Amino acid sequence: MKSNRNIKTTFAVVITLLLTFTINAQRTEVKDYDQGFRLGFGINAGVPTNEDVYNYALGADARLQYDLSKRTSLILTTGFTNLFISNDRPDLGIIPVKAGFKAFVWEDQFYVLGELGGAFAVTNGVNQHTYLYAPGIGYASKYIDVSVRYEGYTEYDTNQIALRLAYGFKL
Fold first, then answer.
1. In what helix (H) or strand (E) does residue 55 lie, and over which residues does it extend?
2. Are 47 and 160 within 8 A, CB to CB?
3. For every one of its 171 residues, what pLDDT tens digit does the chain have, with 9 covering 90 and above?
4. How far apart are CA 93 and CA 123, in angstroms?
5. pTM of the prediction?
6. Rounded to whole angstroms, how far apart are CA atoms 64 and 169?
7. What is the dihedral of CA 125, 161, 60, 118, to 10 degrees?
8. Measured in Å, how far apart are the chain's first and last C-alpha atoms?
9. Is residue 13 helix, strand or coil?
């Protein structure tokens, strides 16, 4: 009988301690994150994967970001990219339009992102549009965003690895 009472007492003490620690842990949780929009303007420099045809890529973009939480965001990106072509052929200018997801994975500054969308040729009479996908990694502070991405095109005869340097701010 006595051992049964000791087990019940020990069990009650353990449950009480667990509930106390759980309640205190909930009190010290981070307050709700202020969801909101950010806007960033960036410049891009890229190296095409098909160097037989393309020399390099340069562009500029605007990115609208909606923070779902402190670590996750939805993003919309558009701009202009010029793929410089060798052999005295006209360059290919495109307008990419992408939607994606950004997740901060380390210290709320280093992130991974993935984007899907389309690219629309707009220069030199080229009428070839393409789907595109763009996984990447990056670093973001309060105002500066630096990232590297692989941008794959389904219809053009190249892809690119691009560096993006951007200035962003909260709206």
1. strand 54-67
2. yes
3. 555 555 656 555 555 555 555 444 444 444 566 789 999 999 999 999 988 888 999 999 999 999 999 899 999 999 999 999 877 778 889 999 999 999 999 988 999 999 999 999 998 888 889 999 999 999 999 999 999 999 999 988 889 999 999 999 999
4. 5
5. 0.77
6. 10
7. 50
8. 68
9. helix
